[in-house]
Fold each of these.
Amino acid sequence: MTSLDHEEVLVRRGPRSGLYSIIAVHSTARGPSLGGCRVLRYDDHRLALRDALRLSRAMTWKSAVAGLRLGGGKGVLACRDPARLTGRARRDALIDFGEAVEQLDGRYITAEDVGTSARDIATIASATSHVTGLSRARGGSGDPSPWTALGVFETIRASVERTFGSPDLRGRSVALIGLGHVGLPLARLLAKAGAKLLVADIDRARKADATALGARWVGGDKAFSSPVDVLAPCALGGILDHDSVELVQAPVIAGAANNQLADDHVAGLLADRGILWAPDFVANAGGIVNISVELRSEGYDPKVARALVRGIGDTMRRVYDDADRAGVTPLAAAMALAHRRVADGVSSPV
Ligand code: NAI
């Protein structure tokens, strides 16, 4: 069951497209709610609503732990067949969504997400100014993925430091699963830092990129259970469950994939096995941290973004310290930090 602890939820049928825009504003305690717009296939509008509720809540915790003056929101454009939502029909649906965003008067700011592109965001921007993540050419912060990769890279350094005593990655082995928009720039950073890479991806077309970096190309199962120093999941969520954690040999798991744990109990199983797991929503906040720089009155500056995204390493160190002090898992410590910051609103220190 999806419980409701949100500030507001807007459900609006688009006058042009007939498609429903669902926007969930979970919290604006720390600032306007920000979260992407998904265009996905939903066979049932209840599932679309549930996604918006669940994902907007997750955005609240992610932005709070990252110390951003932002709340959590999410938009869903519920659609039966996204592949056929093209041309005029797509434009109509996106403008309808933009009008729904505009109705919230800045309490929700939208961005790119699963099923939307930078071009789609530009279309939405013709109906509302509450948009982030436009291309650099249009004054926005551009593609978030390399920033997500940088935040994960700093997370890996902080986690390696915690486990081995130094953040130096020279000679450290990393098994990376998913060489996509985040995985590839992450692999480049790791290779440059001197790490030895094992890479797995279900798409064999990625092999050329892996070998160009000097990485060993392996199957997904092999990457998952190899005796490496770090396992970096950068593909799909749910990869760590009650059974699969038994197979992990890496003492550190730190990657970009969202919702890596099948359920929260898995955090305890990992801790019991002596595996340090970097909470995914802390590790993969680089994209939203970069976007937040767009909202400064001075405008977007990549140098500022770089410094802030690099700070994710220190956020992770703090989470690990809190966890040690309280005798809880890093997941519990990160959630406690997020809840404290939301309860305190904008008055809490970042
Ligand atoms: P992507 O779709 O560009 O890359 C995912 C890669 O994983 C693809 O190359 C795909 O072939 C591969 N893959 C899929 N299933 C696999 C499997 N079972 N085994 C091995 N490889 C598999 O996605 P992107 O943008 O790189 O995101 C990766 C993860 O990071 C996702 O979970 C996403 O939700 C999360 N994330 C991404 C952010 C971003 O800025 N792009 C921000 C925050 C989280």
Amino acid sequence: MKVLWLFAHPEPASLNAALRDEGLRALRELGHEYVQSDLYEMKWDPIVREIASFDPDVVAEQEKISWADTLVVQFPLWWYGMPAILKGWFDRVFVKGFGYGLKDENGRVLRYGEGMLAGKRAMIVTTAGGRASSLGPRGVNGNLEQLLFPLQHGTFWYTGMAALPPFVVYSADRTDAAEFTAAASGLRERLARLETTEPIPYRAQNGGDYDSDLVLLPHLAAGRTDLDVHQR
Ligand code: FAD
């Protein structure tokens, strides 16, 4: 496979950097090709100064995405989302004419399952300070699977990419050597199944599940309004 590994942590000696190194080693051993965008190391400029500007640094990132069939997006969970430098990468790189803006011959907008990046896969690798229970379905921090919805559904799936279930290290601030070994081994195992892992079964916008106002048909997930209604 051809993997673009996006990495957003400022410290080369961090837990995240050590996991990234393990991940890239695993990809090499599995015979996959990869390129990396280490955003802090690249001094990536996250600020949008002009909407949808195809600056050379943006085009270089778009070329990496076009080359790749899989994106791995790695970041520490900061304020229940991604670090600003990574958000700025998506804001500047996934612009109309590259990430979205495609229509079919009938003028129908192609997004959520269809789109410019359809056929590619994307997987989040993240670390969280919170423990797994506190980021679970009834945890005080909110369900991490749902906290990641804007990236997994609103960005990956919106542009056509299949979102693989995320790889998460919980209680990351208390990681000891044994926990690191377990996390690294879990990551290697997930990377070994990159090609075969079933994506999150999000519904396609144009697959018949939504009405003309883009509202889920009433008989599907009847009576529910949580974000999981958008999964089959
Ligand atoms: P590091 O600080 O680098 O390391 C964490 C631990 O792992 C340390 O104990 C270190 O000794 C150990 N370690 C590092 N490398 C290795 C190695 N190679 N082998 C063994 N052990 C190692 N958490 C939430 O849950 N929700 C939030 O909303 C949230 N918001 C945050 C906002 C900010 C601005 C910050 C700074 C933190 C936030 N956190 C939050 C916590 C954050 O998610 C964690 O601090 C982060 O995920 C830990 O990853 P790291 O790479 O920075 O870890």
Amino acid sequence: MYPVLIVEDERAIADLIEMTLEDFGYVCVKAFDGEQAADFIEKEKFDLILLDVMLPGVDGFSLMEYIRPTETPVIFLTAKSSVEDRVRGLRAGAYDYIVKPFAPDELLARVDGLMRHTGRRSRTIRLWDVEINPDTRTVSKKGVPVSLTPREFDLLMALVLNRGIVLYRDVLFERVWGLDSEANTRTLDIHISRLRKKLGWEHQLRSVPKIGYLLEAER
Ligand code: CA
């Protein structure tokens, strides 16, 4: 398993990408211009390159020529308006593109999708002393397997992907059980308390009165 190379001259965006991916077990390297990126690509191997199109000096398309012989998969980062850029990126051999601004969820979904497609890795999410593997849908605490029902696992993933954010009970319920479920939000409450107990997250998985639930951000 190799790191993800982030090539993006806007540092705030590069940092956001890094934070999102590192939270979910990816190791990242950042390059802020085309020359720096080319240096990295020459010396190191990467599982994936996230490549901004508009870069000072050597732009993303030129860099693509340089990347292609290494056969490293590329996801282009493009501006919203630029349909031409997207088409050109895909023609140049990019696997996918992400339109800026993007939500962390979307970025993660694209990156995970590519990793699964290329069979590069099976990722694990570590939160406190709990390890979650979304590919195998398994969970362990301090190395000891924790058995969750499929609903409990779905609920856990919904909370994990939105941690640090208060989720409305209705929204959370709908995400896990769907719109036309026979169950009700009381079922959600029961699942939450079971998750709390199984994972030992009495403090981390908080009830927010009259609103819903919050999984604490780790940092
Ligand atoms: Ca840029």
Amino acid sequence: MTSLPLIPVAPDAPAARRAAMPPRHLADFDLAGRQALVTELGEPAFRAKQISTHYFGRLVRDPAGMTDLPAATRDRLAGALLPTLLTPVRELACDDGATRKALWRLHDGSLVESVLMGYPDRVTVCISSQAGCGMACPFCATGQAGLTRNLSTAEIVDQAVYLAGVAASGAVAGSPPRLSHVVFMGMGEPLANYSRVIAAIRRLVAPAPEGLGLSQRHITLSTVGLVPAIRRLTSEDLSVTLALSLHAPDDELRDELVPVNQRWKVAEVLDAAWDYAAQTGRRVSIEYAMIKDVNDQPWRADLLGRLLAGKLTHVNLIPLNPTPGSRWDASPKPVEREFVRRLRAAGVSTTVRDTRGREIDGACGQLAAAEDNDTDAPQEAAA
Ligand code: SAH
């Protein structure tokens, strides 16, 4: 018999209820694990494939929609394998519906957010791996409230499946109906929730009905740079795109902007990134928020260019997005242009990221999951 991964179930003690892990869900398991569970529940093993086809193949998350299952079977399997993990609290849209931010309440009351972004040639979802974040980067809204808890594998996967369903319903005008890209750039530090995030990636890339069948190249994992975890990722049989939130080329400044740098320095984290690139053949993205008079000086562009020249990499400059109470501003456009020019002159491929979702606080670093977040003029999205 296949041994099942241990999924913590919410304990009964009231004191432990806060920030507890959710009940198990089919997306926590691979197909063999689901078959073992279904058999334990007294149902034939083929039911595992049947409900997996609904969930991953047809994006049906509600057991009531699985009408080809006998009612008793449906109730039994739904109770054991399809608990409600995400309850939508609010959906906001901007860019004429091409960008949508979803706020979810988890079973223990924790709040997390995901963002769906439609483009002419692809549909991307940005998902959260933790409720809150413990990395404390001072320019990021998520970092300000600290970490509540890790998300389970299924809580991570269910964000993508839910929003894939929204895209499939044709809600994102001018975009293909099929979800094609997933970025782990929502709330949380994915490598601090390592095993659940890796399992979630396996669900995203496994062909239907075991998983969503996305291409590994279309999955991006973004990290502050937890070096041992990057090294562990390098040893997995995966080749997803790695993004490194660098934000400064020198330890003095990076110690402040990305506090985990006090533990793993720029040289160390870049070494780990290049080993990942060598192992997978994939270009590592370097994320760099452009912060006025903080990290945007020409000499820092030159230093960054020297660190990255000749490497398998691409720089994404992110105009700093506003966050509540932040003392920092985005760099002026001419400064940004000069930064790009210097990096390119050093032979480093560089682009400036769009600021999708800014007006609904859905852009990089703005996810803070407050229920009463006031935004300027968002359209409430039709659910
Ligand atoms: N914890 C991971 C995943 C979050 S990804 C990581 O840090 O990589 C979110 C990205 O947006 C990171 O690159 C983060 O540094 C960046 N970011 C955070 N706050 C921002 C802000 N106010 N403006 C622009 N980018 C920001």
